[in-house]
User: Fold these one by one.
Assistant:
Number 1:
Amino acid sequence: MLKNITEAQLKNMTLKELIALCEEAREVITKTVLNNGGHLSSNLGTVELTVALHYVFDFPEDKLIFDVGHQCYTHKLLTGRYDKFNTIRQKDGISGFPKREESLFDCYDTGHAGTSVSAALGIAKARDIKGEKFNVIALIGDGSFNNGLIYEAFNSLRLLNTNVLLILNDNGMSIAPTVGSMHEYLEILSEDMQHKSKVDRHAKIFERFGFGYDGVYDGNDLEVMINKLTEVRERIKKESVILHVLTKKGKGYSFCEDDPESTHGIAKNNQPVQFNEYSQVLGKTLTRLAAKNDRIVAVTAAMTSSLGLSEFFEKYPDRSVDVGICEEHATILCASMATEGMKPYYAVYSTFLQRSFDEIVIDICEQNLPVTLCIDRAGVSGADGETHQGVFDLSFLSFIPNLTIAVPKDLNEFEKMIEFSEGFNAPLAIRYPREGKRFFGACEKIACGKWEKLAEGDGKYAILACGERAVTQAFAAAEELKAQGVSVTIINARFVKPLDTVMLGGLQEKFILTVEDNMLAGGFGSVVNGYFIGGNKILKNFAYADEFIPQGSVSELMQERNLSGRAITEFIKSNENR
Amino acid sequence: MLKNITEAQLKNMTLKELIALCEEAREVITKTVLNNGGHLSSNLGTVELTVALHYVFDFPEDKLIFDVGHQCYTHKLLTGRYDKFNTIRQKDGISGFPKREESLFDCYDTGHAGTSVSAALGIAKARDIKGEKFNVIALIGDGSFNNGLIYEAFNSLRLLNTNVLLILNDNGMSIAPTVGSMHEYLEILSEDMQHKSKVDRHAKIFERFGFGYDGVYDGNDLEVMINKLTEVRERIKKESVILHVLTKKGKGYSFCEDDPESTHGIAKNNQPVQFNEYSQVLGKTLTRLAAKNDRIVAVTAAMTSSLGLSEFFEKYPDRSVDVGICEEHATILCASMATEGMKPYYAVYSTFLQRSFDEIVIDICEQNLPVTLCIDRAGVSGADGETHQGVFDLSFLSFIPNLTIAVPKDLNEFEKMIEFSEGFNAPLAIRYPREGKRFFGACEKIACGKWEKLAEGDGKYAILACGERAVTQAFAAAEELKAQGVSVTIINARFVKPLDTVMLGGLQEKFILTVEDNMLAGGFGSVVNGYFIGGNKILKNFAYADEFIPQGSVSELMQERNLSGRAITEFIKSNENR
C-alpha cells in the first residue's frame, strides 16, 4: 500500500488499513536501515504518530517540522519517496534528514537539536502576517527538549501572538537516556497520564508560557493518536498546544526495543555501529590519567558513549557530567570549573561544537582557561550529510586568541596529545576524525607548536599534512610518486595554531602543498598561506571549496573533492617541468 | 568611608553606617559614570543588594558572579578599586565588567548574557569535588533571565547535585523593558510578594527544576536585604535557592528613575549616548522600504532602540519582533519566516551575533535563505573592552557557504546596500560600525561582489579598504603621501565575499595593501592573500593581531594597532626604494 500512496488515498483508508500501513512502513524502515545504516529505533517509535498526522492534517499546506530529523523516515515514505527509500543516506540518494530541496512536504531542514519550536513559531508568524490559515506543527523528542532554544521559543510565544502545535515525542531517550530536571518533570506528567489524574495541576509550567497541554499515554496506538490529533487540530485554532505523546523507542522490533541506545544509529549492512577508534583512545587515556589526577573532569552533551567516555563515567561519576543536549552550558561548566583549578575536558562532535562558538571565545579563551576541547567526528562525517560535516572547526577556531589547536596524525599521537594536554595550562582544542589507526609508528614527545618531518624528499615538494586523513593521503601520493622517481617531503603539521615557524622557515622546497579535511577558507592552508605571503614559494592547498558537502562515504566525499593521494600526485606531476 | 574599605570594616559597620556607605557609593558611581560613560541605572539599582551581599557573605572565599556585569560597580568600589574608579572604562583603567585579572574578588569574567548560572554551577561543582565549603552566588538581571542558557543550567541542577544561590535582580528591564512569558511570570510572582500571598503556589516552576524560591519585595531596603540574605545563607547549605529581588533601576537619581532605558548606558561627560548613525540609516531605510514591501520583517534581541529600529517597530508592530536576549531563537525565527516568503532583517551587535554562529550555518546558509544580517557595532567598539569588540565577524562568517558579506564605506552606500538587499534572494551579511559619515560622495548602484575604485594612483600601490573606518584611514594616508609625491590607488572593497576578482585581476600595482577593522586571521586580508597566492604581488595586511583587545576609545585602539593612515603611510614610505 505504501508504494506511491497519496495524501488523499491515506485519508480514505480504514483504521485497519492504516494499521497495516504502519506495519508495512515499519518493515521497510527496518529492512532499509539494517542495510543502509541510519536511525532505526527513533523512527520505529513514531510510525503511528506520523501516519496519524498525515491522516488528520493536510500536508503540504500544513507544515510539519521535525526537530533534529531522526524521526522523519515514515514521513518520507508517505510523501513520494518510497521508490528512492533504498538510497537513503547513500551518495546521491535521499537524505536521512528533512530537506526542503527534496520535497515540498519537507518545510524546514533540521539536523541540530532544539530548532523546531523556533522554526514553527517563525512559520506561523509569517502565516499570520500573510493572512493565511494553515496549521504549523513541530515534532520534537524529549532529548532535544533539554536544549535552551526551547526555552527561548517558549518565552516568546505570547509575544509572537501566534498558534502552533508542539508534539513532544517522549520515549525517555535522546540517543542515550534523557537526563535533567525537565525530563524528571515529564516523567511526573507521564505518571499523571497513566493514572488519569492531576495532569492539569502539574502541567502549569507549559501554561505559564502560554501553551495548552494535553497528553497521549500510548502514542503507538493509532486510533487513540488519530482521535487526539483530530481534537487538537480544532484547539490550535484558538491557542498553542503541547501534545505530550509517550512512544516506545524501537517499537515493533524487539532487538531495538531491548536496546534502543545502541540501535539509535545503525551502520551499514547490519554491522554493529562503526568503530570510533579515536573516541576509544580518548576514553582510555583520560580514564588512565584521571586515576592519578583528581582534577580531571569530563563533560559531554548527551553523547557519552559515542564519545568513548562510558568507562570514565562509570569509574569517576563525581567527575563526569552529561548535561543533555546543552552544548553552550557544557562549555561554560568547563570554563568555570577551570577557574577553580579543575582540568575539564569537553568532548563533542565537531558539528555540535558550533553551538558553543561564543562561549569558546568569551568564557574559555578571553579568560585564558585550561579547558581542553576534544573535537570528535572532525572532517567530513559521511552519511548524515550537510548538517553534520565537521569541516568548519579549524576555520571557526583558528582566529581565536589564546587558543592552541592540535590535530593528531594517528592514535598514538592522539594519546600523546592528551597526555600533553594534562600539563598544558591554557585553552586547547584537539580535533580528530572517527576512524583511526596506530599507523605512523611511535611518535616523539609533543611540544606546543612543534611539527615533525615524516619523510625527507629531494627538495622540490613539501606536503604539510594536517591530521590522519591528510597524512594518509600524503603517504599514498608519496608512494605513487616514488615509483616515478619523485621523492617528496612529508610534514606532520600537528599544530594549526601556533604554526611551527621554525620548521616552516627552514623549508627549502619550492612547492608547499597543504592538505586538510576542512574548509579552505580560514583553515590550515589559509594560515600557512598567510605565513608565506611575500615569499617566493609556490603554494597549493588541498581542502574543501566553498559549498555545503552532501552525504556520501568519507572516502567518496574526500576523493570527489580532490582530498586524495591521487589529486596530490597529479598536481605534482603536472609541475614536474616547472 | 568607601575609600580603602575592607571586608572586615564593612562587616563591623552599623546599619546606619552601611546606609551612608550606600549613599556614598551611589554618589561616586553617578559622578564617575556621568564623566566617563558606563552603565548607570543598572548599577544604581543594586547598591543596597551589593552592600548586603558583602555584609553577609565572605568574599573572596565565597564567589560572586555577575551576569553580563552591568551591576558590578558597587562591588568594585568595595573591593579595593575605589582609587582607580575614575579610570573605569578608560584606556588602561579598570574595566566596566568583572575581570579576574583585576581582582581576586572577581571570580568569573562576564559580558554576554545568561552565563552566570552555568558558571555558578561549574564553580560549585568544582568546590564539591575538591571538598571545599564556600558559597557560590550568581547575580542575574531579569533581562538575561530570558536567555536559553538559563534553562540549560536549570535543567542540570539536580544532575550536578550541588547548591548555589541565584539572585534574580528584577527591575523589569534589560536595556529595554524585559519582554516574554518568563517576565510575565515574574510579574505574577512580584504581585504575590506584594500581597504576601500565593508565592509558594506560583513558584512551582523553579521548584520543578530543584530550586527553593524566596522573594524580597523592596530590594533597595538594606536592612531587609541583609536579613533575607542571612536567612538564605543558611538555606543554601541544604538546597539551591532562587532569591527574587525587586529593585528599582536607576534608584536614587531621578533622571535615571524616570528614564532607565536611555540611562542604561551613558556616554562620556554627561553627553547623550553617542550617535549611532549607521543604526539610524538602517531604521530609516527599512521603514521606508517596508511601506511598499509587506514582506519585510525586523527582528532584534532586546536592542531595538540602540539598533535604530524604534520607528520601524512603532509603524509596523505586526512585522517587528523583539524576542529579548535570545540571539539563537531570533536567528531561527528569521530563517523560518524566510521559508514562507518573508524578507527578514536580523539586526544585532557584532559581538552578540557570535551566539548565532551555528544557526547562521545550519538554519540560514545551509537552507540558502534570504535573511539579511545587519551587523551593528562591528570593529572595535571602545570602552566595553575584550568581551564586546566586534572584530571577529568577518572571520567567523567568511568561510560559510552561500553567504554574501557586504561592508559599506559610508552611510550613503549603506543605504544603497539595504536597498540592494531587498532584491537579493540569498543570505546576506552587512557589517558596519557605530559612527558614520556621508563622506565619500554619491555611490554607484550596488552589484553583488563589485568593488569601486575611489582613487587612481601612479601604479605602484593599491589600498583595498574594507568599510568606512578603513577607507577613512586609506584617504588619510593618501593625502599625506600626496604631499610627498606618492599617489596611491584606493579601492572600496565593499564585498568580502565574493571578492571582486575582475578588479583584483586587473590590478597592475605591485604592492597590495588591505585594511580592515577585524582580526587578521580569517578576515578580509586573509581572503585577499588567498587570491594572490602564487603571484608576484607584495602583500601587506592592516588588521588586528592575535590577541583580545582591551578597552579604549575607537581611535586609540585603532592607532595603537597600526590601523591608521599613519601606519599605512609609513609602510609605503619604507618601500619607496623597492
Number 2:
Amino acid sequence: MNIYDVSRKAGVSIATVSRVLNGSPNVSDRTRNLVLQVMDDLGYTPNVFARGLGLGTIQTIGIMCSDSSDPYLAHAIYYLEQGLRGHGYDSILCCTGNSLENKQKYLDLLRSKKVDAIILAGSKFIGQRPRDNDYILEAAQELPIMLVNGYLDGSNIYSTLCDDRSATHEAASRLIASGCRSILYLYTSHSYSGMGKMQGYRDALGGNGLPVREDLIFQCPKDILSARDLLLGLHATGLSFDAVLASDDTLAVGAVKYAHAIGRSVPDSLSIIGYNNSSYAVCTDPELTSIDSKIEALCTTTINTLMTVFNGGNAPSRTTIAADLIKRATTKF
Amino acid sequence: MNIYDVSRKAGVSIATVSRVLNGSPNVSDRTRNLVLQVMDDLGYTPNVFARGLGLGTIQTIGIMCSDSSDPYLAHAIYYLEQGLRGHGYDSILCCTGNSLENKQKYLDLLRSKKVDAIILAGSKFIGQRPRDNDYILEAAQELPIMLVNGYLDGSNIYSTLCDDRSATHEAASRLIASGCRSILYLYTSHSYSGMGKMQGYRDALGGNGLPVREDLIFQCPKDILSARDLLLGLHATGLSFDAVLASDDTLAVGAVKYAHAIGRSVPDSLSIIGYNNSSYAVCTDPELTSIDSKIEALCTTTINTLMTVFNGGNAPSRTTIAADLIKRATTKF
C-alpha cells in the first residue's frame, strides 16, 4: 500500500496526492475529498518519515543491479542516480548477485521499504523460464517496475532497451562485407540482452548466405584473460576463424591479446569487434571497433518514463534505442 | 536527533536502544527506564517509518562518492553495499561530483533523511583548506562519518586508509634499484590520497640520492588517451625519461600506448607502474606492474569499524592498510 495505489485508485496524479497530503491549497475540494476517501478505503497511512520531510512519498527509488562494479552497470547506476536526483529522488542501491533467490529477497526488501518504484538495471533480471519472473509481475501490482535493457510483458512494467539484435546484425554484416567468412562469436550470458545480441549475429550470417556454425560460438566469463586463453586454446586445436565478434569489450580485449600472443596481425589477419564502447576499447593497440550500447540514453529515458508514470501520464511500456557502431582500428571497414 | 544520540547520551549501545524501542524483554528495567528518560530529555521521537519495519533506526547508511562510474569507486560502492547488507543495512547512494557546494548539499540531504551514518568513499572529500572540511566536522556532531581512503581529524570521524605513501615509495625505489634514473610522475588530483602518493615518490628519490625534478611531475586527466597524448607531447619537446610512475592505472595504460606509438620497448627502454591494480592492468601488452590499493579490505574495515561504533565499542579513529606491489611485465624487477 503506497501513494501510488492511492493515485491509481483515485485516478489522479502522484503530484496531486502529494499536494493533498501536504495540505496545499492548489487542489479542488472535490479532488481533496476524493483522495482522502480513497486513502480511507485503502487504509493508507501516510508515511510519517516521508511527511516529516514535507513529502507525500519517501521520494526514494530502489535500484537493483547484479554487480555495481561491472563497468556497464557502474555507468548505469551513475546515470540513474544523477537523473533521479535531478527529479528530487534518492536512490537505494541493492547489488543482488545472480541468484534468483537473492533477487527476490532484495525486491521484497525494497517493497517493504515503501520505495516509490524499483529499477532493475541490466538484463539479468529477466529469466528465460516464465515462472522465474513471477516475483517481478507480483511486485508490479504494487509499484512501477522499470527495466533497463530487459523486457517483460506486464502491467505497470516499463522497459527501455538497446536494440542489441540490430547492433550485432550490422556489426556481423560489416565484417562479412569486409571479407570475413568465419566469424567467431563470444558471449558472456544468456540474459535477455545476450540472447538478442546472439540472434543478430545468427541472422546476419543467414542473411548473407553463410552457414551458422555452432562450433564458432562460445560462452566465456566476462574476463580479459579468460577470453585470451579460450582463443589460444581454440587456436591450438586448429580451429580457423578470421574475425571475433564479442558481446562485451572485455572479451574483445582478450581477443586482441590472443592475436598479440601468437603474432596474428589485427585487422589484416583477424578482425575484432567489442560491445559497450567502454574505456577498455581504447586500452589496446590497435584500438577496438565497438558497439556503443547507449547506456546514458537508456537511463535518461527510463527516468523520463518513470516521471511520466508518476504524473499519471501515458507512459510507453517499451522504448527501444538504436546502438551505434564505433569504428576504430580492429576492423578493415 | 537520532538513535545514535540516544545511545551516546544514555551510554548504552545502539542495539540496546533498539531493543527498548522494540519492547524486547531482554533489557533490564533499569536500562529501559534510563533509555526512555534520555529519549524524553532529548525530545526523541522514534521514526515511525523505521519502527514500521520493526527497527529502532532506519537501518540505512548514506554513501557519498564523487562518481560511481569511476572503476575504483564502483568497486568501493560494491563492497560497501554488500558489507552493509550483510549487517542488515541499506545504502542510499549519492554521486556528488567534485564541487564543494554539491558535497555539502548531499551531506545535508542525507542528514535530513536521518540515516544512521555517512560513508565518504574516496579521498576527494577532504579539502586541503581546513575551512572546506567544516561541513564534515559539523555533520560528525550528529552522526558517525566514515572516510574511505581519506583522513580528517575530529570527533566521531573514522578513517580507513591505504598507505599510499609507502606504496609509491616502494614502487619508485624498485624502479631506481632496477636502473631507472629519470622517473616521470603522472597524477590525477591533489586529493588526500593523491598527495600521499606523490610524497612517497618524492621521498624515494631523495632517499636514493636522486634530485626531485619538478619538470618530471605532471598532472593529467584520468583518461587513457590524455595520458598517451601528454607523453607524446613531452617526447616531442625532447624531455628524456626512463620510467613512468602513475597514480592511476588509466594513466599507465596511456604510457604503454605512448611507448607503442613511438616504438619504445617496454620495459627495456621504458618501465611503467600503475596504481589500483584494476582490470586495466591486464589490458595491455606487456601487462602492467601495478599497486594493489586494497579497496576491498578498506571497505570491509570501514564497515567493521562502523559496527563497532554502533555497538558502543572502542573504534579506532584511523586504520591504515598496506598496499601490495603486483609485478607484471612493464618493469625490469
